Amino acid sequence: MPVSSAPIAKAKQASTYTGVAIALHWILALALAGIFAVGTYMVGLPFSPARLKLYNWHKWAGITILTLSALRLLWRATHRPPALPEAMVRDMPTWQQWAHHATHGLMYALFFAVPLLGWAYSSATGFQIVVFGQIPLPDLVPASKELAEFLKPLHRLSAWALCALVVVHVAAALKHQFVDRDGLISRMWPGKS
């Protein structure tokens, strides 16, 4: 049975995110994928200059992600995102609407929590973050072995939680694109209007 193009046409009539919101979304998506891959790779390396370089890169990327997240939150606070199409909201079960809002809210919280926990962990270990080897950042907490041991698993677990939420977010977007065929993904796709 052929799929009707009516839901796609209705979704395309809905407004899209702004160009800045779309750019921040995809830049952060790529940055998060990169930092997560490097983070999981580097922890298994033996102590070496290469490992130290990756740790420094990981810290710089974390601070960059923190900054981009703040810009994204500021942009979202001053530029209301487009509402979901009425037909979609009407047909979406209540639990999916709740999951949609909860996933986005938790992802935004973790955009900040993960790098802040990493920064605090670095401070607690006594290693100041010097972004790009040029910009020293203040320590968030005093050096403390006990605090570092407490923060390390929190940073790791929050990163894995963010990764899991990203997987849920991507799966939902793919469901909308290939199962529901409602064109929702086009609202955040570069070059679409």
Domain module count: 1
Report Rg: 20 Å
DSSP, total strands: 2
How would you classify the quaternary structure? single chain
What's the average pLDDT? 90
CATH superfamily caption = Transmembrane di-heme cytochromes, Chain C
CATH architecture: Up-down Bundle
Annotation field: number of helices? 6
Order of neighbouring strands in the sheet with most strands: 1-2
Q: What do we call the CATH topology?
A: Fumarate Reductase Cytochrome B subunit
Distance between the termini: 29 Å
User: Which structural class is indicated by helix and strand composition?
Assistant: mainly alpha
**Shape verdict:** elongated
CATH structural class: Mainly Alpha
The biggest sheet, with number of strands, parallel, antiparallel or mixed sense and barrel status, is: 2 strands, antiparallel
Q: How would you characterize this protein structure?
A:
This protein has 193 residues and is mostly helical. The chain has a single domain, classed as Transmembrane di-heme cytochromes, Chain C (Fumarate Reductase Cytochrome B subunit, Up-down Bundle). It has six helices and two strands. Strands 1-2 form a two-stranded antiparallel sheet. A hairpin with a 3-residue loop joins strand 1 and strand 2. Residues 1-14 have low confidence and may be disordered.
Which properties best describe this structure?
about 190 residues, mainly alpha, Fumarate Reductase Cytochrome B subunit, two-stranded antiparallel ribbon, about 70% helix, about 0% strand
